[in-house]
User: Fold this.
Amino acid sequence: MMIEKSPEGIRKILEILISEGYEAYLVGGCVRDRLLGFEPKDYDVTTNAKPHDVVKCFRDYRVIETGIKHGTVTVICEGEQCEITTFRTDGVYTDNRHPDNVTFSDDLASDLSRRDFTVNSMAWGQNGLVDLFGGEADLKNGVIRAVGESEKRFSEDALRIMRALRFSSRFGFEIEKETAVGMRKCAHLLENIARERIFSELVGIVMGKSAFSVTRDFADILSFAVGKTTPVSDYLALDSDVRLAALFSQNTDAIKSLKTSRTTENTVAYLIENADSLLPEDIPSAQRFIRRHGYELALKLCLLRADKEAYTKVTDVKRAHLPSRIYDLAVRGNDIILAGYSGAQVSRALEIALDGVISGECRNRKKDILEYIDSKKDGI
Ligand code: ATP
Ligand code: MG
Assistant:
């Protein structure tokens, strides 16, 4: 049933490999997601065909060979992109992340045993599910459990610790006791993991449905990756900037150390620094709030405090096109210059005009604004 329900292109890829005499299975995340009833976001295929044989099988298709050294060939078939990886076992790990070498193998079992968690180590082939580690039961019971001896698996690749937390948060699954023990024993190895990888797992953790319990119960582990964290409430909007700002509310430096994009770094840092701002209670204060923070950041600040009413006030200002920035005024700098002001007076006059318009003392019409400015000229 699993294969029939897969996209046309993926079915074709399996058929081609099988018709060439190879074994081929759907594997990993796509099998897990399917069993959970979700549409997988991508499909992985595992096969006993060696990478160069895979390339040969798909000579009539677009093939991307970037991962070929590790046994992965990407094939695009009927618009569907699929990673085809040769059965392999991983060699020794010396950097807590990448195997020093990979060895291709002839049997599915060894390929499944190198995978991280039982729920990620299932395959689906012509004869149905291949589940060597009890993944289906763990999926049913909502359990994340390492394949094999947990401490060994996490010391081979410490990123798996973050992956465990991410899957636990995303699916609302418990982390099995021995697995959690292994994670804690190896948590110090997270210091060796690339900051970019830590960051992307962290986003998955804070955006998951069990963000709160995971960030509360595993703060000790997270501290090795990013320092002090604060539990993220499940009631917060699903906005990664907002959730990261909540996570790092007592540790602004963490976001700076994570090598994320400049925009994300600046946004999250800004949200943390302004987290205590007084939120708008009425329309004029919402206009001033936007004036001070900009519309996008104003919204995120309301989300960070989970203040629905303040959020609505901010969106109301936007929807009604009420003035909140200098740009919204019915005059331009040039009009002020023509009225006889110059230099720094111009921007001061515009700010005073905006104050007047927001407070309702002045209508947002050129004539009214120029009169208003004239009445305030002593302060300009
Ligand atoms: P997602 O939905 O986030 O893509 P996924 O399970 O598909 O989840 P991928 O990173 O796409 O995760 O990896 C595909 C499969 O490769 C996993 O299901 C797992 O079997 C295996 N895998 C990925 N990363 C590791 C790792 N660090 N250690 C061991 N196995 C891994
Ligand atoms: Mg995947």
Remarks:
- The first strand starts at residue 24 and ends at 27.
- The longest helix spans residues 344-359.
- Residues 274-319 form one domain.
